[in-house]
Amino acid sequence: MSQASETAPSLSQSFRAAMGCFTTGVTIVTSCSTAGPVGMTANSLTSVSLDPSLLLVCLKKGGLTGEAIRAHRSFAINLLAEAQEDLAMRFARPSDNRFGGVEVDWDARGVPLIHGSAAHIVCDLHAVHDAGDHEIFLGQVVSSVHDKAIEPLVFRAGRFGTYQPRAVPA
Ligand SMILES: Cc1cc2nc3c(=O)[nH]c(=O)nc-3n(C[C@H](O)[C@H](O)[C@H](O)COP(=O)(O)O)c2cc1C
């Protein structure tokens, strides 16, 4: 291997590393398949429009959760609390039983809402757009609840953390 290929990161590596400087919250996107609830950890959430209320999340092509959302036509965004790092890890790894022992409520649209989350946003599928090795799932928000008292889980440069607001100046 040449020295140049050892030292120079590819464009996708440097892009990924640069995006690590962008601190995000952490969500679990949930929906329902014929086999039961499905969900995956995602931090690509973006608020898109207020009127109408739209959001987007980018999901890797070929994943179970994206497939289920296409079929079920509705999904939920569970905005994770700082105490839910273990769930964030569990829903990012391959497993036959991601929901084992996880307490959920079922929304009227048949999507699972994970207990203890800082917010739940339920969406109907508005559109799916092709985007490289991912797809952009646009959701039309149909309901949204949050608990201001719950501190969020945050993610930066491959590590989970907690949010520390600056003290309000006296
Ligand atoms: C903090 C964090 C954020 C993630 N964000 C995304 C994301 O936005 N989109 C995505 O496709 N995968 C994301 N992943 C990876 C998926 O959670 C992982 O590939 C998961 O196994 C996919 O689930 P599936 O089997 O239902 O497709 C993220 C993982 C972590 C730990």
UniProtKB/TrEMBL annotation:
UniProt EC number: 1.-.-.-
Enzyme class: oxidoreductase
Name this polypeptide is given: Flavin reductase family protein
Domain Flavin reductase like: 19-162
Alphabetized InterPro entries for the sequence: Flavin_Rdtase-like_dom, NADH-dep_flavin_reductase, Split_barrel_FMN-bd
Record keywords, A-Z: Oxidoreductase
Keyword set includes Oxidoreductase: yes
UniProt entry tagged with the keyword Ligase: no
Gene3D superfamilies xref list: Electron Transport, Fmn-binding Protein, Chain A
